[in-house]
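Journal club prep, notes for RB
We'll compare a predicted complex against what the paper describes. Inputs for the 3-hydroxy-3-methylglutaryl-coenzyme A case:
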Amino acid sequence: MRYGMTDTVEIFEVGPRDGLQNEAREIPVAEKIALVDKLSEAGFKHIEVTSFVSAKRVPQMADAARVMAGIQKVDGVAYAALTPNMQGYEAAILAQVDEVAIFASASEGFSQKNINCSISESFERFAPILKAARHADIPVRGYVSCVTDCPYEGAVAPDAVAKVAADLFAAGCYEVSLGDTLGHGTPDSVARMLLAVLKEVPAHRLAGHFHNTNGHALENIDASLALGLRVFDASIGGLGGCPFAPGSAGNVATEAVQEHVTALGYETGLCSEILAQAAEMAEKMRG
Ligand code: HMG
Ligand code: MG
């Protein structure tokens, strides 16, 4: 089992993707490569580098292949990218990503705004990705967005989240990351959602992905730790947000999660000094 040790927390770095996708300034490829290379020194097992999505929809990720081509891969780090459909998957494989992520929503409104299709249509697009990835031994991670609140539909029912998480897990995702896209979740709403999801997917196959709009992300991590989750997505320097969730802030900052879980006695395997240097680089990249 991947996360057998109860005293270990994995921080899954998503800053170069979830962080930078929302920056207004056109960030030079070399700056993105330098950030990923710095993060590669920190001890992460996973770094989400970029997205293979429509450049018209997310211009900041148009350089995905160039970023992948420029980074110095380090042994032991899996370099991941978002792939919404086969077009994205094929480009990601050509760019030599180590793993891909498919991303669904628990609410129809966000699914339409984000990926221009219904939840069930999104699973039709994911099916060939899962099949091709299984043949190529490429691990697939699954995201569920809007796990507590949706920018277009308000509160989201825990059972709706559980259904999408169960479908991603059954389809072959090795891990399902539960996204509070808007950052409006609270320890209560997160716990209610998790209790529903845990009936479908075991805790060691789940990750928490908390945007920090209302400043509750660390408490939401605590609520998730109490229910057995040990993997949390975070963005260096707290970069970012989602262009299709107006008003959403960045993911919880990696260095804050590192400090928080370390103080609670968990081991992350990350070097705080390198994280501080990377956070400084991220800060300079902000528009
Ligand atoms: P669509 O419009 O339904 O697709 O897009 P289409 O097949 O009709 O194609 C339309 C155009 O897009 C065509 O180009 C395609 O070639 C192109 P045109 O002929 O008009 O020039 N296209 C692509 N180009 C590059 N890569 C591709 C690709 N697919 C089609 N893979 C699509 C569907 C999903 C691609 C589009 O709606 C899109 O790119 N949306 C953006 C999704 C996105 O990146 N959202 C942000 C990330 S998700 C997130 O932040 C949440 C998360 O962090 C968790 C959380 O916080 O909740 C993960
Ligand atoms: Mg996100």
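Talking point for the session: The radius of gyration is 17 Å.
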